[in-house]
Fold this protein.
Amino acid sequence: MATFTWTHDWDATLSEEPRQNRAEFGDGYSQVTAAGFNNNPRSWALTFNNRTEAEINAIVAFLRAHHDGFDWVDPDGIPGRFECRNWNSVRQKALLKSLSATFEEVFGR
């Protein structure tokens, strides 16, 4: 399994949105249960600012080649399987670029 090893900037942002099954009843009562075993995937917004063009190009090449998932250890030190479905790169100056990407945790792949 491919492993993402580049170091991101410190300002990584974690988002979590637990998946739930909810049943609403006519009297205002609702019943909520967790949607499966892996119901709280992590999503990390990452940046790689002021990097060489070669480094950003290598990261983009990795993301393109492993769009179906890769191993990665998040900023909290928790390993997992992630995918990156979108990223943006910006040319900043001669030979410098920045990249922003969102890594979403996936299960069972």
